[in-house]
Amino acid sequence: MDFLSQSLAAALEMIWSLDDEMYFIVYISLSVSFFSTLIASLFGVPLGFLIAVNHFSGKRVLITILNTLLALPTVVIGLFVYAFLSRRGVLGFLGMLYTPEAIVVGQVILILPWVAVFTMAAVSRIDERYRYTALTLGATRLHAALVVAREARFGIIAAIIAAFGRVIAEIGIAMMLGGNIKGFTRTMTTAMALEHNKGEFVLAVALGIVLLSVSLVMNIVFQLIQGRYGVQR
Amino acid sequence: MDFLSQSLAAALEMIWSLDDEMYFIVYISLSVSFFSTLIASLFGVPLGFLIAVNHFSGKRVLITILNTLLALPTVVIGLFVYAFLSRRGVLGFLGMLYTPEAIVVGQVILILPWVAVFTMAAVSRIDERYRYTALTLGATRLHAALVVAREARFGIIAAIIAAFGRVIAEIGIAMMLGGNIKGFTRTMTTAMALEHNKGEFVLAVALGIVLLSVSLVMNIVFQLIQGRYGVQR
Amino acid sequence: MTLFSLTGVRQVFEGRTVLDIEHLELSAASSYSLQGPNGSGKSTLLNILAFLEPPTAGEIRFQGRVVDWREKTLHLLRRKVVLVDQHPIMFSTTVIKNVEYGLRMRGIPSRKRRAAAEAALERVGLHAFADRQAHRLSGGETQRVAIARALACEPDVMLFDEPTASVDVENQALIEAVIQDIRRQQRVSVIFATHKRLEAARLAERRIFLFAGKVTGPGGENVLSGIIAHRPDRSVCTLGPTVELEVRQRLPSGPVRIAVKPEGIRVYSAAERQNVAFTSVLHSGRVLQMTLEGDAVKLHVDIGIPLKTVLSRDEAVDSGIMVGDTVRVAIDPDAIQAVQG
Amino acid sequence: MTLFSLTGVRQVFEGRTVLDIEHLELSAASSYSLQGPNGSGKSTLLNILAFLEPPTAGEIRFQGRVVDWREKTLHLLRRKVVLVDQHPIMFSTTVIKNVEYGLRMRGIPSRKRRAAAEAALERVGLHAFADRQAHRLSGGETQRVAIARALACEPDVMLFDEPTASVDVENQALIEAVIQDIRRQQRVSVIFATHKRLEAARLAERRIFLFAGKVTGPGGENVLSGIIAHRPDRSVCTLGPTVELEVRQRLPSGPVRIAVKPEGIRVYSAAERQNVAFTSVLHSGRVLQMTLEGDAVKLHVDIGIPLKTVLSRDEAVDSGIMVGDTVRVAIDPDAIQAVQG
């Protein structure tokens, strides 16, 4: 237990002393995850909403495809994007491999289906009669859709938070597309997984504490919103 | 596109020719994931069931803790178990670090809360009146509990399948506790993430295809069960 | 003035015709009840009249103009007609914001909106609830807020789907009073679906009866399941083990739902056996219930199947029929409407 | 023989007393109806009689023995009593497996089980449904299978919670016939909760009325909300804008729920004003409805509030009262039971 408690103490000391290297890794993680989530939400929320409120041929197929994309392992996404971005790949000329942007691309592919599917579920849960009520009170179609979106807001926010929680904790994409380059693409997860047995165990523990804290806070917010959401419906 | 299609062709050839190395990696992945899921289910299903059907003080707290454990990032679990199993750790004398057993330990910690929480949710969804109906028809308490478990069976099976899908695709724990030792702890995910840029790209693609296939099959079974389940309730 | 004019309106859901109206005219500034058994098409008709669901076929004129079902302009029509659902949906915000919603959609400025919404809440007696969360209301209060929300829109027509079916007795009285108030004080037309005959009698100037999607006479009451059989000389419908009614309508053998119009049922006291109307067949029955209905008395007679018919108060007094009496019942074959299935 | 004997039985949920029975005896091989408004404790009592929920306090004797509420032996008692719910739960398997379930729990061997289950299905007319999936049944069929499932257990007591409340007219008739059949042909006791007075009259030898958790006389009908006020000489309960009833019970001022026993209500035709019973106060009212009930006639009178009372057939004929007549109504203050809230 001695070893563990020593590492913990050193890690806390590192967090407390505002260690530059550590905080820069945290910063990269948060900013990459933020942009991934932002981009995935910008496309995923409207996509999920449109699927939920519209009837069109192929809707079932599209839902099945999205559900299937939920099962994409991170390493498969990583490999797939790698094949495009590597020097030998079609998009190799962009020079994006082993940059934060490459991680964002992979993570967007990872969570866009999540955001879309959970937005769709949240919107679908809203009774058709909300729309009818808005219409009979004189709303245009657009306003009626906004009413539905408003009623589904907690579910949509919960979906976005869950997506952020997923990307901040994922490692496969960050490693394969970022390459764990110190000060550039080294995220909390890649640093923890690859550096701890190179003697940077204290850093790994400190990052673990930060990552765990972020994950728990996300989880608490998620549960609070779900609770609120559950009460209301 | 040339590079991608060449790799794909070579990968398919590798799968088709029953490449020993590749299939051994697949075998290790499947067996590790199988045992993780088995152990997590043996403990998680009864745990979830007991929480769902019993009323006791601290029930809410226990549920909150389990929900919180859902958010544990794989790398945090990996680091935590590492701290115990490493030569300097409390359980270092077991010599378990960098063995398949170590991966199983970490993965059980990862998915046991999942299995428990989703079993609990599935059982809680079963109307209290199922139990009352069994009781009024003369069932003992044990038999009434079995009725409830039977009604929740699709939900429980779905939970176990989802857990298997999660461990087969995870990489953080497999890497930190297994160490990607060829022929021993090298799983599909660790091989894909670490080996592709060491020239084993074809192997990585082949493994990607297998992993994707396994994930998709799990996902299809999961969706079928959920569909069945959804229809019935 | 004609408010709604429906011609050849049919609504088909999943291959099943749930509404089939040859012709129906509804006048402005009047009140109508829509009555009929479950599944007779009441809610479907209300949704069409509210412009929420286009019919599968047929033409609808509203205030003299043919309704164009393209979404682009439909909201302008919808702003003249508000439907209050049986289980009204409240938006997850405050009561007052709910009531203001229709006004906001109409571009009314915020201060005016608030005043109008408060006035509407006042009318349903829930002024004090303005700042409560709408989802916290009881069923009866929700129903009343929904009526206020509709009132605030100042529509030409208010449609209600079973406004009192899901509320307790006290709220029922309050809601009926509000509807009566709307009917009296405004140029608003009221059309409401209801199961309650007494409510229809109290609130409606005119009554529309639906049976299996069709407008029928006021016979939506004696709805029964039977089986059509063909005899050499006539077609009959057997109902239960003992009762057989003659049917004039031509239908293939098999199960049917029938509706017997009350005016086609005559009840004679056991003594008075001469001068019998319609047919030679007399059913023996017992009077189970007599109910006052406006100026008429509704009789509930059991002839092996339950039948309801209506007498004037004078007829009832003259006949000397009392609850519990054994009576003879004649049924006009032409008063029987049958629908397959 | 006494089947159930309840003494001082109280059930409290979340601080609210929902059942409070001083003493109640139910005889074996008899049939009882449980009547009363929503929330009067009917389902709670049924759950206690089915040994599903122990009461908060009180003693229950079943077949002469005090019930021990420890779970260990309770299933042996439960095997003598089966409760059929209003919305029965079907296990997600075939109909026949559902019906066999109780027999399986009793360790009956498989072949005998199947035969008994088929016989039970036969009794509810659903023999042909044996191999269907139970979840695919309609509401009425589900109810009937649930009855068959209970019958198969060959219990001493069958409890029904509103057996016909959620089914259509045809299934209602079928279910009533099955219950009547159970009541006639077996030594089985039947206890059923119902809202339907006619059903209670048809199926029950004895009737139990609950009001606010207490056993009352057959007055569960005139349940109204009012406000108690104290006058110098007496206490009154005001109901609605115009009606004021004298109350003998001592209660603090404030809102109450009251129940007026029908036997405490006398109705006089407008002419006959002498010899008035109970009090000097006479209410003016109108007869809205007369309903046959066994050998009696139930009168529904509106005196500003709706009241129901019962006359014998002879009294009704003699009084010459007709539906629509204006009448005078006297109410016995001792017939009014009030409960705070």
From TrEMBL, chains A, B:
SUPFAM superfamilies: MetI-like. InterPro entries: ABC_perm_TupB-like (IPR049783), MetI-like (IPR000515), MetI-like_sf (IPR035906). It is a multi-pass membrane protein. It is found in: Cell membrane. It comes from the Bacteria. One of its GO terms (cellular component) is plasma membrane. Its main location: membrane. This is Tungstate transport system permease protein. It comes from Desulfofustis glycolicus DSM 9705.
Automatic annotation (TrEMBL), chains C, D:
It comes from the Bacteria. GO terms for cellular component: ATP-binding cassette (ABC) transporter complex. Residues 4-237 form the ABC transporter domain. GO terms for molecular function: ATP binding; ATP hydrolysis activity; transmembrane transporter activity. Gene3D superfamilies: P-loop containing nucleotide triphosphate hydrolases. InterPro entries: AAA+_ATPase, ABC_SmlMolc_Importer, ABC_transporter-like_ATP-bd, Mo/tungstate-bd_C_term_dom, P-loop_NTPase, Transp-assoc_OB_typ2. Keywords: ATP-binding, Nucleotide-binding, Transport. This is Tungstate transport system ATP-binding protein. The lineage of its organism: Bacteria, Pseudomonadati, Thermodesulfobacteriota, Desulfobulbia, Desulfobulbales.
